[in-house]
Amino acid sequence: MDEQHLHELFGVDIDNASSRSAEYKYLEEHIPEYIKRLKSRGTTRRSLYEEYLKNRPQGYSYYSFCLYLRREIEVKVPVVRIDHIAGDQMYVDFAGDKLYLSDEKTGDKVPVEVFAAILPCGQITYYEAVPSQKKEYLYSSRQSQVCRNKARRD
User: Fold this and answer.
1) 8 lies in a domain?
2) Model-level pTM?
3) Cα separations in angstroms, 48 against 10, 62, 140
4) What secondary structure does DSSP assign to 26-69, as a single string?
5) CB 8 within 8 A of CB 64
6) What is the pLDDT of residues 66-82, one digit of tens each?
7) 3-state class of 96 per DSSP?
């Protein structure tokens, strides 16, 4: 295999800039724009790759494209590792966009927020649809869960 193909497969860094292909140079110039656009809602790696192929029909494979993109993101975005003690913490938040439930009687769409809680050590999750993000719904969501669990034990 030629050096460029080995580089694609195993990610060996090529220090000599002159040995880099024109394809790699093109991608290297456009990766910052791709990373910026990935933050936009609705933009996927696949859509960026399809756009890349329109400009470069003989370009990299989807796998290689994503590999170069991921490497650049990993270099630019700091990552923090957090060690968890089982049962020590629970993370809670409201997830994503509003969803809608259908009212059984009228058929109207009722907007709801999705309350999410996770125990990070065991990846145990809990979700519940609530009317809004107000405190009383956060508390009542938690209380109703405790009551249901207590009822199951009794």
Assistant:
1) yes
2) 0.44
3) 23, 10, 43
4) HHHHHHHHHHHHHTSTT--HHHHHHHHHHH-TT---HHHHHHHH
5) yes
6) 999 988 887 766 667 77
7) strand
Determine how many CB atoms are found less than 10 A away from the CB of residue 141: 19
- Tokens 């089982």 label which residue? 86
Q: Which long-range contacts (CB under 8 A, 24 or more apart) does 138-144 make?
A: 138/92, 141/115
Number of domains in the chain: 2
Q: Which amino acid is at 16?
A: N
pLDDT digits (tens, 9 = 90+) for 117-134: 888 877 788 888 888 888
Kindly report the CA angle at 80 between 74 and 82, in degrees rounded to 5?
140
Domain identity same for 37 and 100: no
Those residues whose C-beta lies under 8 Å from the C-beta of residue 85, and which sit 6 or more positions away, are 121
